[in-house]
Predict the structure of YaaL family protein.
Amino acid sequence: MILPAHISSRRPRDRDEAERRALMSSLSRTRAQINQAYGSFNQTSDGDLIESYVFEINALQARYNYLLRRLKQLEVQP
């Protein structure tokens, strides 16, 4: 079955919009987690905890960068 152009062209946009909203939500959550990890890092003096917060912050920043890159890719698509 062939759908009219106005219906078939809307579906990929709807998917893109849903993905964009999910990415924005994930970015917001990840940003909050980064802030929380920095706060915890700043509150401790234990060497093991400091090391764990450094790894956590680096992992969260990598995730944030991925989500941001994916969002930019989505916005560039025709």
Q: What stands out?
A: Residues 17 and 55 are 32 Å apart (CA to CA). The chain has one domain: 19-76.
